[in-house]
Amino acid sequence: MTTNSGPQMILVAGPYRSGTGDDPDKLAANVRAMNDTALVLFRAGHLPVTGEALALPLLEIAGNTRPGDPVYEEIFHPIAERLLARCDAVLRIGGPSEGADRMVAQARAEGKAVYTDLWHIPDAR
């Protein structure tokens, strides 16, 4: 695992669909949790990113009709995988999530830092 004491580009990975039954309010709450975490990272001097921030607008214009449809499968996880390839680290938040766990496995395979607690990430300021 590599670590970096300066500013890092960190993928915030957490549940999006897991445990929601695809309820729009629960999906939005999961995105909010990732965004809230991203804000803390930003204020600590890092560049936080989420796959949802890139995937959700693309899904909308690509004709996605529901989570899990073919357009979703084409875009949602591949965006996060490509994004993580450019990141320095991943921060895994929240509860069970197959997709977030895949991001952690990818990060470890690529020798990137994996954080499981926001407070273990060095301040970049």
Describe this structure in words.
By secondary structure, the protein is of the alpha/beta class. It is 49% helix and 12% strand. The protein is built from four helices and four strands, in the order βαβααβαβ. Strands 2-1-3-4 form a four-stranded parallel beta sheet, with helices on both faces. α2 (51-62) runs antiparallel to α3 and α3 runs parallel beside α4.
Helix/sheet category: alpha/beta
Task: Output mean pLDDT.
Answer: 94
What's the total number of strands? 4
- The helix/strand series, from N terminus to C terminus, equals EHEHHEHE
Rg computed from alpha carbons, rounded to a whole number of angstroms: 14 Å
Quickly count the helices: 4
Give the overall form.
Answer: globular
Strand adjacency order, main sheet: 2-1-3-4
* Helix fraction by DSSP (H/I, runs of at least 4): 40-55%
The N- and C-terminal alpha carbons lie at a distance of 22 Å
Q: Which band does the percent of strand residues land in?
A: 5-15%
Give unreliable regions as ranges.
none
Fill in the keyword field for this structure.
single chain, 125 residues, alpha/beta, 49% helix, 12% strand
Write the layout of secondary structure elements.
Layout: E1 9-13, H1 24-43, E2 47-49, H2 51-62, H3 70-86, E3 89-92, H4 98-109, E4 113-115
Parallel strand pairs: 1-2, 1-3, 3-4
Helix pairs in contact: 2-3, 3-4
